[in-house]
Amino acid sequence: MKSVITFEDVVAAAARIAPFCHRTPVMTSGTLDALSGARLFFKPENLQRTGSFKCRGASSAVSVLAAAGARAVATHSAGNHGAALAYAARAHGLACHVVVPATAPRVKKDAIEGYGARLVLCEPTLAARETTCAAVCAETGATLVPPYDHPDIMAGQGTVALELLQDAPKLDALVIPVGGGGLCAGACVAARALSPGVRLFGAEPALADDARRSLAAGSIIPSTYPDTVADGLRTSLGELTFPVLRTHLEDILTVDEAGILEAMESIYTRLKLVVEPSGAVGLAVLFAHRERFAGLRVGVVLSGGNVDPSRLGEFFSARRAS
Fold first, then answer.
1. What residues does CATH 3.40.50.1100 cover in the chain?
2. Percent of the residues in the chain that have a pLDDT greater than 90, as a whole number
């Protein structure tokens, strides 16, 4: 089956987003290597504009829409995509409307409004997000920019792996967090083209393992918006992202809540980076499945850092109490 995006699409997206997104560095830590039993190469997207990889996909999609004459965009988001779309819309002179679950972290809501978007709250279910967003689009005439299930979004997210494999070209494996699958799908396409033999793994919370179960079943099993600390990974796979992941991923590995918080604290203490729980899931999976990666050179995507500062102590205390 022909992929919804190609490597050439990822390269084109890289050119589109260059004026609007950072090329984030690759970071290493001898201590984290020793703890994991592997040689780790981190891609810290918490240092990206808007604090997550979502800036890449949003900038890619909005750039295309602005060139086509769009005047307003809208989306639904757990927070990071909303902030990224608000940023990209402002950079291109478009109005922006973002539907967000009422339970989303305050820091993410503040970021969306800070970039000039209109914030619309809804119930914390995917159905509520989609229904509310459809109403907003009908009311305003805005063009929907989905949070992950869109070719221009996926191509933009794929630039994470494009850069990582250009800067660390001899990786044995790549571990990517999976929520809706846009980042993982785009990364798979880029990685498979640049390094055909690289082993590709998704990473999920055990409480939100709908992607793992979907790949095992051969069809999408919807997320029930589970109560995981990794709030950015609660969404279901998309119709476009699912077949890409099914084609390219060797496996999707899961980790419990305590493991996520342990990895989050390890990143904070060893790399001196603040990442949100969703951003720490890749390292958490490596800690939980050391035997799968022993002695390998592994790229790890730290997907974002938009965590409420007031909750850091809570997260780290909960980890020690577990």
1. 7-52+151-321, 54-144
2. 83
In angstroms, rounded to a whole number, what is the distance separating the alpha carbons of residues 247 and 35?
31
Tell me: the pLDDT tens digits for 260-275?
999 999 999 999 999 9
Q: How far apart are CA 106 and CA 171, in angstroms?
A: 37
Residue 225 has pLDDT above 80, yes or no: no
- Inter-CA distances, 197 with 6, 191, 250, 274, Å: 17, 9, 11, 32
Q: Is the pTM of this model over 0.90?
A: yes
C-alpha span between 21 and 156 (Å, rounded): 10
Res. 248 pLDDT band, cuts 50 70 90: very high
Q: Are 172 and 129 in contact (CB under 8 A)?
A: no
Instruction: Give the CA distances from residue 60 to residues 162, 178, 199, 239, 311, in Å, rounded to whole numbers and listed in that order.
Output: 14, 20, 26, 20, 32
d(CA 192, CA 185): 11
Please check the confidence at residue 167 and state whether its pLDDT lies above 50.
Answer: yes
The architecture (CATH level 2) of 54-144 comes to 3-Layer(aba) Sandwich (3.40)
Q: How many CB atoms lie within 10 A of CB 137?
A: 18
Per-residue DSSP letter, 289: T
Cβ-count burial of 15 within 10 angstroms (0-12 exposed, 13-18 middle, 19+ buried)? exposed
Collapse the DSSP code of 299 into the 3-class scheme (helix H, G, I; strand E, B; otherwise coil) and give the result: strand
CATH top-level class for 7-52+151-321? alpha beta
Question: Can you tell me the distance from the alpha carbon of 54 to that of 301, in angstroms, rounded to the nearest whole number?
Answer: 13
Helices (H), 145-218: 151-157, 159-167, 182-194, 210-217
- Sheet containing strand 95-101, strands side by side: 118-122, 95-101, 72-76, 143-144
Q: Residue 321, Cβ neighbours under 10 Å: how many?
A: 8
**What is the overall mean pLDDT for the chain?**
94
The alpha carbons of the chain give a radius of gyration, in whole angstroms, of 18
Q: Tell me which DSSP letter residue 176 carries.
A: E
